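Course assignment 3, question 2. Fill in each field.
Student: A.L.
Task: Predict the tertiary structure for the chain below.
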Amino acid sequence: MNVVKAAYKYFELFGAQGVAARAVATIPGTSNEFMARVPYRDGRVVIRVGTTDVAAFEHVFVQDEYGFDLDPTPKMIVDAGANVGMSAVYFALRYPHAKILAVEPDSTSFRILEKNARLFPQIIPIHAALWNRDGYVRLNDGGTGHWGMQVRESELGIAVRSLTLPSLLRQFEIERVGLLKMDVEGAECEIFSDAASWIGVVDSICVELHDRFRFGCMAAFNAATEAFPKRWRRGELHCAAR
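Answer field:
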């Protein structure tokens, strides 16, 4: 993106303050963090200008990626692959009485997620990767920036704690999940392949599938949610509900 197009995009999303923040962030030694106003809603979020945070902001708040209706309204939301918290903040604004467990393995994104969680007390940030076993996995850059970090059972990469969904729910004494949102860059293959122990306590699921990274993600999702009669697509999201 050239300078003029980038400036126009920042002005379109964030106004003159966003353009100024992007310009200042190019100066060595200055922070790239910016407090952005959420469009059409009374709220603000912390983003890092010049990073994939901007695209995440646009997907969630401008393109209204999660703008579907759920019945009943979720009281408990698990946001797996929460990144810096754009989807978690969206859910906090749309479902103000819900508790949101925001799970993110990447430490740099988690630092911003924590800042956004301080603005919305119903968001509980958890530094871990959702997986099919408790322990540790390895975090690797998938090549698409902060929002494309991938976890694997490997000798390479940064070690990060892994949690199963049942372990997460036990830790917070949760009996039912109204919405499970998942954007975990291919780890959904492992998670859904071992869903028998937890799928019964989830009312609705919204997931971005990554068969381009891990063949079998779609098949694992379809098998795990075969008892969910309601299905729909919204952009890159595959959704199912009881």
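Instructor remarks: Residues 1-51 form one domain. DSSP finds seven helices and 13 strands in the chain.
Grade: pending
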